[in-house]
Design a protein that fits this description.
The chain is of the alpha+beta class and 274 residues long. It has eleven helices and nine strands. Strands 6-5-4-9-8-7 form a six-stranded antiparallel β-sheet, sandwiched between helices. The protein has a three-stranded antiparallel β-sheet with strand order 1-3-2. The longest helix is centred in the C-terminal third of the chain and has 25 residues.
Length: 274
């Protein structure tokens, strides 16, 4: 098709006009706020958000008010900080459902539950919490109070939490721990940064993390990451069992081998799943 100069000039002017009129500063800034909060592992203050995004105070206040009213973000009145809201979580879960991610992964979880006999979970990080999004109970598995949608804020005391922490640079890890702290949940919960860093070094070397009665007495977890093609952690597969079973080194190795193999197979298929 041949376009003459008049038609070309007309189209160029109209495209330019559409580009200018389709730009919505308020929407752009609102999305920038959500994206910023999704990237940070802890909540942010008004001034931190304003500085990071270079948004004027009056405009940012209006944006935060709308996002808070619609439950996209949560304002902590005591700490005067903002974090992502549960509406984002529910939308993320809906996306996982519609992309068939959970249904495809569930077959892998079932096989792992059968070969280990234990309860198997799929955990993801949403801001400063771990969220259980899928669970399969094996023939000898523990029946837990947790269920899909349950959240765990204790990264330092859980195997999947340690997997995520192990991917952070040293300075970032210290910043995160300073914000989240190291709450003591049981007598075996890690209480010092030095001890945690030593444990995380082992996680990096072995490719899996373990917690034995660190979050809940009598319960142990072993977890390995699902990675995308860029090496970013997208989720963790976790085997949950009675603590005495992981105190058996042979059983620990057996579970570790199975869970790492499963996680690697899913990671290999990840780009095709989506």
């Amino acid at each position: 098709m041949i376009i003459n100069m008049f038609e070309y000039t007309y189209m160029k002017k109209n495209i330019s006009y559409m580009e200018k009129t389709s730009y919505v500063p308020g929407l752009e800034r609102g999305l920038s706020v959500i994206e910023l909060l999704s990237e940070e592992p802890y909540e942010m203050s008004f001034s931190e958000i304003s500085t990071k995004l270079n948004i004027p105070g009056a405009s940012l206040w209006r944006i935060l008010r709308v996002l808070t009213d619609r439950d996209y973000i949560i304002f902590d009145n005591k700490r005067r900080t903002y974090r992502l809201g549960f509406k984002i979580m529910s939308m993320g879960n809906f996306l996982l459902e519609t992309s068939h991610f959970r249904s495809i992964i569930r077959d892998d979880l079932k096989r792992l539950a059968e070969v280990t006999g234990e309860t198997v979970e799929l955990d993801v990080r949403i801001r400063d919490q771990l969220v259980l999004i899928e669970q399969v109970i094996g023939p000898e598995g523990l029946y837990l109070y947790s269920h899909p949608g349950s959240a765990m804020p204790y990264f330092h005391a859980t195997a999947p939490g340690k997997v995520y922490l192990a991917q952070l640079p040293a300075q970032k890890l210290r910043t995160v721990i300073k914000k989240l702290g190291l709450p003591k949940l049981t007598a075996k919960t890690i209480q010092s940064l030095d001890e945690l860093e030593k444990d995380l070094n082992n996680v990096r070397k072995r490719g899996f993390a373990v917690d034995i009665e660190e979050m809940r007495e009598g319960v142990a977890r072993i977890s390995s990451p699902i990675m995308d093609t860029s090496g970013k952690i997208m989720a963790c597969i976790t085997v949950v069992c009675p603590a005495f079973r992981l105190k058996d080194k042979k059983r620990l190795k057996k579970y570790a081998d199975h869970i790492k193999k499963t996680a690697e197979e899913i990671s290999f298929r990840y780009d095709r799943i989506f």
